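Appendix B: complex inputs.
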Amino acid sequence: MSSSSPRDHRSGTLVRTAVVAWREFKHTALTKAFFFGAVVVPALMLGVVLLIPSLISGRAAPIIGTVTVFCSDPAVVESAQKSVNERGSDVLMGSRSARGVIEQMAMDASEPSGIDVTIVAAAASDSIDALKERVRAGELIAVVSITDEALHPPVPAAGADSPEESFFDMFVASSTSPKHTALLQRAFCDAIVNVRVLATGADFEQLSALLRRPVAITSRLTPEGEEATENTERRFLIPMGFMMLVWMAVFSSANQLLTTTIEEKSSKVMEVLLAAASPMEILTGKILGQAGVAAVLLVMYGGLGMAGLIAATMADLVTPGTLLLLGCWAVMAYFMIGALMAAIGSAVSDLREAQSLVGPAMIILMIPLMLWLPITENPNGLFSTVCSFVPLLTPFVMILRTAGAIEPVPTWQIAAALLWGAFTTLAMMWMAARIFRVGVLMQGKPPSPLELLRWIRER
Amino acid sequence: MTQSAELAVDLRGIGKRFANVAAVQGLDLAIERGCLCGLLGPNGAGKSTTIRMIMSIIKPDVGTVSVLGADALAMKDRIGYLPEERGLYRKMRVLEFLVFLGRLKGMPSKGLSHRIRRWLERLELPGVERARCSELSKGMQQKVQFLAAVVNDPELIVLDEPFSGLDPVNARVVTSVVSELHEAGRTIVFSTHQMHQAEELCDRVILINRGEKILDETMAEIQAQFDPRTIIAETMDPSVDLSTLAGCDGIESVEREGTAGHWLLRLDSQCHAQAAMQAALRTTSLRLVSLRRTSLDEVFVTLVTQHGGHARTEVR
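Resulting structure:
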């Protein structure tokens, strides 16, 4: 049994730490539940992101047939026909607001319109009831009845309220799709307005151009004299997105750290581990193992977010430099929160006891979520700058500032926050190791804050 | 005095307090390499605390701990440890768990699985390597835990209650492995409440009560020191009365033990046991006559009672 001597292969602290880290990673990340949450769910979400344009722009069934119109002005028929022909492709293409790849995909998907609608004026001998029966029978697409009152509504007197609504009737079969109904409604609405405008002697296209509202492009002037373009997505959504991403990855891994530490302590595995490795090796290994888990989550969900940005041609909102900095803040946030959770896990005997210590910590850590709006409103303001140097909040606040600032965060503040954050993280790790060393062997009631301080000071 | 380097364990004046309770106080312990040493004591005597200090799991408040001639922390790879309470990852498979601990103890991964399988067979646990730890019975878990303590072929093996949860058959298996390891030159320190096992295995016994050492002798020394000077005699005819032997040939007193012809002959300090036995044989036909040996159980009870009874509430 003693054919090979382990002393020949004695490995050091690094190996022990790596062994603990690998076990921690393997038993968290290489499980079915994690695979589902970290791989299957993002993959499904990505699939949905890619499929949505196809789904929303899915080609409608072709609409082929005749619409009969009761109207005194034949120009309505002509105008409606023109409008149907123009609008057909728009309706079938779906939203024009989507950008980039999504828009392109929608456009690709909507090539042949499948619309062949002929609009004709009703003959003098036609009765509306008879035509409605033909609509029911599927021989006609629709019957439209437009009164002269709808065509030429009375002009309100000067100073009077806005003119009353005017109406026209349209009868379609019960099976007509909402998309086709909307197409016809818009076509006749436009045709009626067109006829009204023509009756005044004005040019409809010119008038439309005059009434179109302009888009405001706001630029902010920085103290350095530079001009930064206002961008709502960048200003509010990107910082929040990144912070939520880091928040989710960090807290799910840190929570795992908490529960596995409690499990190891309550199942007495910890004593076996302590006989083989020092508390610092165990703590470091566990934190590194869960860091791998957090990294997987960040890569999967961050990749999903980036794919979304690329799909929406908004990838330019996140530069490589910003990504690098965000990575630094994410690492800092993880090690800070991870150390905190491991320390709490070591100090208690079960999850219920842990709640009493996790609760206050969570309240502090919820602060960045509440600070989202004030910080993104003024990322380089005094309030944001001060918050950047509050221990535990530093990485989260800096994520909001780095990702959201239209004008760059001053370099000295980034450097100072990196240094301060690194110091705070090391201090947290040191305190966590002190608490971990004593806490893992303690049983009974959870320690008070004063006892925790005593553990930190204990030789 | 034995040099520290020749000792497997060298504790000098160690003490440990938990809140207001002194779990261990002023304990000196020098265990030679190759020794099989029993660490005995009532519940809460400080055995587990002492073992944890040997393992450098906790640090003493005072005193020094030297294991295999150096600081225990640096010697972890050369020490095997079986804790008092089973500590297994419930969801891990047995082989995976043992490989993990072997790697943690500095074993190379190459050949480790094969080595563990051989050990599993030796411990009569064949075919359990794919089972999850939670699926094993209490006794099987204890044997897996024992295997985890010896898988790295340590020089010093510290076993805290190794026979806990084992039935007599499995206890015998573990006993034989412990004996083999001892014969192979390993130093073994184990704590137990099962005196017969300690008596059967140990070269040396250390008795702790209330955190203090009250006995530290070899088994031979204990036998000599606690010789009961009593002869056990069993007559062929249960009705024969041996009380007439009282006062003869240094026999102090004679008393009946039970009703089936069993007698206890107490000898005075000058009496030669052989002569007393011959005197008994001359009196009547005896089925059995033997010199009573002291049991560790009696020594334990005697000493613990002398030193203030059972220890206080167990401290962890």
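The interface with chain B takes residues 1-7, 9-11, 15-16, 19-20, 23, 27, 264, 267-278, 441, 443, 459 of chain A (CB under 8 Å).
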